[in-house]
Amino acid sequence: MILGMNLTRLDTYTMASLLGFGNLLLLTLLLAYRRHRPRHVAFDYFMLARLLQGMGWIFISARGTWPDLITVAPANMSLLFGVAAESIAFLSYRERSQSRERYFVSCAVVGSVIFLVFARTPPLIVAVGALAALSMEIPTAFMLLKRTRESSLVGFMGVLFTVISATFVVRMVSGFQGVLDYTVRQAALQSSFYLPVFTVLLAGSPAMVLLLKQEDERALGESNEKYNALFRYTPSAVFLSEPDSGIILDANPQCLELTGYAPEEVCGKNFTDLGLWQPGEREKAEAAYREKGRIVAHEIAARNRAGENCTWLVSSGLVQLRDKVLLASSISDISTRKALETRIQGLLTEKELLLHEVHHRVRNNLNQIVG
Questions:
Q1: Is residue 130 within 8 Å of residue 169, measured between CB atoms?
Q2: What pTM, to 2 d.p., does this model score?
């Protein structure tokens, strides 16, 4: 209430100056914040919107001091493209849509052309500018309200864009009727427009930051779910260990089937402590790792907890998990396969010997017949 009363006592140029420098101040704060978060297309569009709208309002506040040729048209064009960038930002915080981007940019371009052609008097400047902005504000409000289920913050911004759209409708009608000049003849009507604009300016930046933070948390949660599912349910035993000492930090449930040890039993120990290496196999694995910087499908002779000899197929490599570099190893027991390969190889050897013997006897028989 007090803010509204104070705004009604401010002239248009003071309001425009506050909006201009307010946008640029927020842009400075967003640039500082951007250094500490991953790059996101919605955030880039939002900063572009703050820049364009800040420049537009500063141009408007300079009207009367600078010629209209370099204030009115550039200001409204800058504001229109700022509205387009802001709409794209709030509709792209979760997923990017090139079709939406093309729509809003096209609206800004067409609106700017219409403004340059038809906005010749102060009332028409207001009316045409409001009409061009409405082509972007109304779809934005509608789409944000449709996505209220995603976040209450999205619904709140949808309500704010709806209020802004209503004020643009009032300005458009008043401008076409010729009752609203760009000076402060209608203080209450002007304030009914500037107060929602100030509200969107003050609420938009925190809302964008919070929306992107919520999206980051959602994406992180999905990534953790995928990682946990892959880690727990992959058919191979997976171990996360320290690269230097080989101390196992984590293991999936398949560790029990592979080694005979439960995951909690192997954590804090390495394979040597557990007695899972056959003599000389660790040195071979370390040599293979030093040669290529990783291990790919390397066979090692091992033994399980019961002392049974087995053959493991090991693949290992370094992975970055937050601020730590760990060694991830995927191990499969191929003992059955190796036994089958050995048996098949034995059968092939027997077959070759049998064929050789048959060939030898046939040759001897042929020699006897010829003789």
A1: yes
A2: 0.70
